[in-house]
Design a protein that fits this description.
By secondary structure, this protein is α+β, with helices and mostly antiparallel strands. Helices cover 49% and strands 34% of the residues. The protein folds into two domains: 2-43 and 144-164; 60-130, no CATH class.
C-alpha cells in the first residue's frame, strides 16, 4: 500500500504545484493587462500634452485625517497661459503619511518660482508636473508591471519544481 501511495502522493504534489503555477500565470497576465493602460496614458500625456512654464502661486502642506493617521499632501497652485488665456490650476504634487517628506516636496516648489508642466489641450486646467521619461512619472505602471513579473517568476519556479519532481 505504501509503494502505491508514494507515486500517487508525488503525482498529487505535481498537480497541486501546476495549479498554483497556473494561478500565478493568470495573476501575472491580469497585472500586465492592468499595467498597459497606465503606461499608455502616461505615454499619451508625453506625446499630446503641450509643455509650458508655470509660476507657483501657492505651495503648502495640507493635512487630512485618514483613519488613525494623517495624510499630508503637497498642494500647489500654478499660473500659466494657454492661447493667451491665464489658467490657474490647483495640483496635488505628492501625498504621504510622512510630514517631512511632504515638506521636502513642497520646498521644491517655492512661491514665485517657474516650473515646467504639461496641460491637457482639451481641458487646459488639467495639468501634470514632472511629466517626463522618468521612473517617477511611470511609477504606478512600473509597480503594477513589477507585480506581474513577481507572479510570473513564482509561477515559473513552481512549474520547474513540478517538472523536476516527475
Amino acid at each position: 500500500m505504501s509503494a502505491r501511495s508514494k507515486p500517487q502522493e508525488v503525482h498529487q504534489k505535481r498537480g497541486t504545484l501546476r495549479v498554483i503555477a497556473a494561478a500565478n500565470f493568470i495573476f501575472a497576465a491580469i497585472f500586465v493587462v492592468f499595467s498597459v493602460p497606465f503606461f499608455w496614458r502616461q505615454i499619451d500625456v508625453l506625446r499630446s500634452w503641450p509643455q509650458t512654464e508655470a509660476q507657483v502661486l501657492r505651495s503648502e502642506v495640507v493635512a487630512q485625517a485618514s483613519g488613525h493617521e494623517n495624510v499630508y499632501r503637497a498642494k500647489l497652485q500654478m499660473l500659466y497661459t494657454v492661447n493667451s488665456q491665464p489658467i490657474t490650476a490647483d495640483l496635488t504634487s505628492f501625498e504621504s503619511s510622512n510630514y517631512e517628506a511632504t515638506q521636502q516636496r513642497v520646498a521644491q516648489f517655492p512661491v514665485g518660482s517657474h516650473q515646467a508642466l504639461r496641460y491637457d489641450p482639451a481641458n487646459p486646467a488639467q495639468a501634470r508636473l514632472g511629466a517626463g521619461w522618468n521612473t517617477t512619472f511611470f511609477a504606478l505602471p512600473l509597480i503594477v508591471f513589477g507585480m506581474a513579473t513577481v507572479f510570473l517568476l513564482i509561477g515559473s519556479v513552481l512549474l520547474a519544481i513540478a517538472k523536476a519532481s516527475s
